[in-house]
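Appendix B. Chain record.
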Amino acid sequence: IRILSRSSMFMGLEDLGLRSQELTLFNSFLTRPHGIILVTGPTGSGKTTTLYASLAKLNKLDRKIITIEDPIEYQLKGITQMQVLPQIGFYFARGLRSILRHDPDIMMVGEIRDYETAEMAIRSSLTGHLVFSTLHTNDAAGSVTRLIDMGVEPFLIASTMIASVAQRLVRRVCPACAEEYEPSPELLREFGVSSDTARGGHFKKGGGCERCRNTGYRGRVAIYEILPFTNSVKDLTVQRAASTAIKGVACSEGMKTLRRAGWERIIDGTTTFEEIMRVTADIDVGDAIQAAVPETSEHTPAEVEAPPPRPVDATVSL
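Structure tokens predicted for this chain:
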């Protein structure tokens, strides 16, 4: 059973936990007229909330937005929402075909689970639609190999993808009982950082109180790994490069890994080492903090080139 908070319905992109440069980059993706934006992560990582916030940002009177979901988690005013109904054979792929007949500007597919759904999402983006969806992958680069494993041709992925965004939800340190402390060398070593890297950080942990029910945490915030499909990432995609190679190039171009994004939340006292290690336990420890590119070298929207427009017949075979 999933208990959903109605407060999540009204969250804007600026409320999700995106840093200022990340928010600027993400907003630049939303200006694209067509293409695919994927949000990846395990169940319960906040993917749907991010998608809803994106749709809310784009929701204007002159835009037709249609979603196909399983299930519909929140009602979105001004947006047409459809629900998967397996008992009558109404799955994501069939729903997408139905949506295309209504000629929407923007589409959201709850999840890409198979080749047929991936094929329809790509076909939709090639014919001038902006498509949002989710995948279950550990990191942003894993979305490429996941789509290829489904049978999608790499050149189609490179032609249609705008960005892949991996995310996790971490608990916030309770502000009522937060205490500053100095992490031990052993803890820093386990996390993959040196004492020099940790110098100047404001490390906090909750002592436990009535407000947080003695857990030391209150509330949650998202951490993000944003992979724009730059020309170099597209080239690696066409070459069927491993996700580790794609991640390496993306980091050299300024991408922050989930572990790096988590580290920034640790040193500003938002969350703890234990929380970041818990939510990134499925990620290669090779995401060393010291190897991360400084925040000043992140992508700016101007550095992320849009996929070139190309006329494609709606019946293209994938």
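Further analysis of this model is presented in Appendix C.
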